[in-house]
Amino acid sequence: MADAPHTEPSRRTARAVARSVRDGTYDDAFAPASIAEVWTAVQACRRCDLWRNATQGVAGEGPARAALMFVGEQPGDQEDLAGKPFVGPAGQMFDKALAEAGVPRSETYVTNAVKHFKHEPRGKRRIHAKPNVGEIRACRWWLESERRLVRPKVIVALGATAGRAVFDRPVTVAEDRGHPFDLGDAKGLVTVHPAYLLRLPSQDDRAKAWTLFVADLRAAWELVG
Ligand code: URA
To answer: 72-104 pLDDT, tens per residue?
Structure first.
């Protein structure tokens, strides 16, 4: 297990939260009052089956209030072990792009659409598997809780899975990127997932995708104002 990324709530709160989540009474009986409660409660989440094969639930990280929220897909192998979002190879790519765009990660809230690592065994390795629509929908309750608490002005969906969670509809990055959508209480943007940059085989394509990604991050920061 990883270091606790947030101040722990009291044991009484933690027990109440775990009971509420286990009993599936999420919406009526329990709404997390802090990100620390989200972290505690997500460990007891049984809204779908992904918890079964994950080391732990990984919620978001960042200031309790942040004007800019990033949403990825799901924790990867390293995030699952570390208990932190975006610390593996995609996270390092993300950090580099944020630095180039002049966006301080420490002032943003970084989370994922799905809070448990979905994977398939291949020998000793755990291979990333894409969350399905039911899993994204089940986990949306947590994302909405984080959104209610953090109150971002701008939410950036990193990739199509995040887009579906943020916008509650199918999203095509190529079509939807480049302009803000009205989410009521926030503006929503779509860009590629940083892992996409790692997968592109040609150096030329990688360089072009990198430039566009950095520009999207910069535009999101400017939209915050
Ligand atoms: N990919 C994601 O979408 N999120 C992470 O936290 C790590 C990799």
So the answer is: 999 999 999 999 999 999 999 999 999 999 999
Task: Using most ligand atoms within 8 A of CB, pick from 50, 74, 135 the residue to mutate for ligand 1.
Answer: 74
Phi and psi at residue 16, to the nearest 5°: -65, -40
- Assigned token pair, 76: 């990867």
**Whose CA is closest to 115, among 38, 196, 26, 177?**
38
Nearest alpha carbon to residue 64 among 84, 36, 40, 91: 36
pTM above 0.90, yes or no: yes
| 189 CA distance to ligand 1 middle (Å) | 17
Burial class (CB in 10 A: 0-12, 13-18, 19+), 18: middle
Whether 109 is in a domain gets the answer: yes
CATH number at residue 127: 3.40.470.10
Ligand 1 pocket, residue 73 CB under 6 Å:
yes
pLDDT digits (tens, 9 = 90+) for 187-212: 999 999 999 999 999 999 999 999 99
